[in-house]
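Quick log. Single chain, no ligands specified.
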Amino acid sequence: RANREAVVLVEQWPEWPGPFVIVAGPPGSGKTHLATIWQNETGARRCDPHDLGSDDLDAAQAGRPLLIDGVEPEGFDEMALFHIMNAVRATGGSLLMTSAHWPGAWKVRTPDLRSRIQAATTVEIEEPDDELLFGVMAKLFADRQIKVEPAVIGYIAGRIERSLASARLIVDRLDKASLARKARITRSFAAAFVREHDANQTEFEF
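-> predicted structure:
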């Protein structure tokens, strides 16, 4: 099942195999969603991968968990990340990083940093399967206090791009459309909505 390994690993905190965990996967696979859940549960500091600074290092030295979401192959300060990782290891802290690229593709020029990254526990997160998409959409509707029958959610989930970003966007659009038309989100409403957008966009583009 998509995401299971990543979810299990994140839920095991603080009993991780090591201080560093990297979750890698394609855009829309739910990396940020999973990382945000971990951040909320641990009180982790969210660091900007493009602007790692002294405040991030201070947090690492204080033993606070850190999240660096969206690491790109290039564009991050290697020495800043190296010092942060050293501080996390020295204090027994935790660092969760996410990236759309497998760590082996990161263009790391500092040998010691490369070895730290290679030693991290890395887990791949895949595009969401039907079960996960259904569960995410059901929660998104529930969060908006919108009652939608399971069969309708399944119908919609089978007709959108397989990504969590698509699920969030379609729920938002259906919510706004149902409010504007003062109509419940039934299967016929969803079908008409799908056809309406197909007429304008050939296919869904999220």
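Residues 61 and 87 are 5 Å apart (CA to CA).
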